[in-house]
Amino acid sequence: MTATASRAPRARPRPGRGVSPPGVARPGIGWAVPATLFFVLFALVPLVLVAVLSFTTWSGLGSPRFAGLGNWTKLFHDPVMIKSLWLSLLLTALGVAVQTPLSLLLGVWAAGPQRNRAVLSAVFFVPLLLSATAVSVLWRALLDPNFGVPAQARWLFGDGNLLGSRTGAIGVLVLVSTWQFTPLHALIYQGAARAVPTVLYQAAAIDGAGTVRQFFHVTLPQLRNAIITSVILMVVGGLTTFDTVLILTQGGPGTDTTITAFYMYQKAFKGFDFGAGAAIALLLVLVATLVSLVVVRVSGYDKMAGTKDGLS
C-alpha cells in the first residue's frame, strides 16, 4: 500500500518593505518625471537663483553686483531681523498650540454619526474656501475700532483698537489664522478618524471603556501619524505667513508684528534691496526646514509605520 504523504500548504510570504505584492507591477520611473520636472523648475531653480542673489546687491534696475557676505553680515547684526525671527517662531508656536486641539476635536466629532453633522461641517469649512486676502479684509472690517464690533462693545474691548498694542495685534493674528486654517486640519483628522477600525472601539467597550477613555486610548494613538503631519503643515505655514500681516497690521504697531516674511517684503519691495531680501528669504527657508526636521526626528515621523498592525 502506497501512502501518499500529505503536504501542508506553504504560507505565502508577506511582501516586505520595498517589495511589490505578487501579481502587482511596480510603476516605472517614467511616472515620476512630470512631478520631478515641476519640482525642479518651480522649486529648485528659483531657490538656487535666490541663493545666488543673496550674495549680490541689486535695486531691481541694472545688473546685480557681487557683494560677497555683505548681506549676510548685516542680516545677523540687524535687531529687527532677529526680532522678526523670534516673532515668527512665537506665532507659529501659538498657532500649533491653539489649532491642534481645536481641529483634533472637531475632526473626530465630524467623523461620527451625529445628526446634522454634514450640514454643520459644511458651514464650518467655509473659511477654507476663502483666500487669505479675503479673510484678512473681512476681519479688518470686523475689528475696525470706529465701525466694527469693538466700537459696539467698548465695555469689553476698551478703546476698541485691538491692533494698537503688541498683545492685541498678536492675539488677532492668532485668532484669524485659527479661524481660517482650523477647518483644513480638522479635515485631516476627520479622514484619519474614519479610518480607525471599528473593532478597536468594540473591544474597548467590552472592556468597559467609556467615550472619554476610548478617545484617549484608542482614537488618539490611531491619529498619531495624522497629528504629526498636521503639525508639520502648521509649522511651515506659520513661518511663511505674509498676506495676513500685510493687510491686518502692516507689521505694526511699530515692529511688534514684523515677522520674517513681512520683513523680507519690506527690504526687497519697499527698500529696493533685493539682495538683502533674498538673504532673508533663504534664511527663512533654512529655519523652516530645520524646525520641520526637528519635528520629524523628535516625533519619529521618519520611522512612521502603519497603525493597523495585527488587524489583518
UniProtKB/TrEMBL annotation:
Localisation: Cell membrane
Pfam families assigned: BPD_transp_1
Keyword Phosphoprotein on entry: no
CDD domains: TM_PBP2
Region of interest (Disordered), ranges: 1-21
Record's bilayer topology term: Multi-pass membrane protein
Top-level taxon of the source organism: Bacteria
Protein name: Sugar ABC transporter permease
Organism: Streptomyces liangshanensis
